[in-house]
Amino acid sequence: MPASLGPGPWAVIASAAVMTAIVGVRYLMTSGLFALITRRVRPGLYQGLSGQIGREIGWSLLSAAIYGIPAGIVAWGWQERGWTRIYNDPQAYPLWWMPLSLLAYLFLHDTWFYWTHRWMHRPVPFRIAHAVHHASRPPTAWAAMSFHPAEALTGAIVIPALVFFVPIHVGVLGLVLLIMTVMGITNHMGWEIFPRWLVHSRAGHWLITASHHNRHHEFYRCNYGLYFRFWDHLCGTDKGLSVP
């Protein structure tokens, strides 16, 4: 067997395949759970949307591969080559770095998302790619990963790129991925799952929930953020809350 087809490349391919499966199953389980919650709490909200939901699932499973492949390559590089700055030993860095790294990853991811998302609303990239996501009108719990492959790629590279530069404990990285998953789904549910006292509090003024993101799906050129309203406030693109 040629050197290029030795155990290393096949291990990378296997890692990418496993990670793709994990991302896909995670999507089906978490979106399915929140869709079930919606069915119980807001019966009839998704009535008549079966065709849209089917398309959302199809695009999302394609996105799972686009997210899973770079994640699988990075996971292999971390385990086998020590490429990344992911660490296992909690004492490798001061303990205060754990919560700070969590905030750093969320802020950097949010910053990347805001500016790429805003760019996606220019006429050409919107027509080519972002229109797929905005076909979810209204958005549902299945829409969180419903992206054209070009848009999915812009989202898939962020966390894998950050782990090469910003140290992070493997457990904190898992928490980042959990927050990313939960926020992505709950922001698209079409109704507000978080309590009113939080959404309308001082903290809520800086956090993105369905009440904020639903307005983006209604009016398009506003409310571009993912986790935080910082860039929307700073750039004058925050148009407040809807009442999903």
Tell me the Rg in angstroms: 19 Å
Integer average pLDDT? 94
Main sheet record: 2 strands, parallel
What structural class is derived from the secondary structure elements?
A: mainly alpha
- Report the order of strands and helices: HHEHHHHEHHHH
Strand order of the largest sheet: 1-2
Count of β-strands: 2
**Unreliable sequence segments:** 1-6
Measured distance between first and last alpha carbons? 58 Å
Q: Portion of residues in helices?
A: 55-70%
Number of helices: 10
Beta-strand portion reads under 5%
Overall geometric form: globular
Key descriptive features of the protein:
mainly alpha; two-stranded parallel ribbon; single chain; 2% strand; 244 residues; globular
Describe the fold and architecture:
This protein has helices spanning 7-41, 50-81, 97-120, 123-134, 149-156, 158-162, 170-186, 196-199, 210-219, 230-235, and strands at residues 86-87, 168-169. The chain is mainly α and 244 residues long. Strands 1-2 form a two-stranded parallel ribbon. Helix 1 (7-41) packs across helix 7 (170-186) and helix 2 (50-81) packs parallel to helix 5 (149-156).
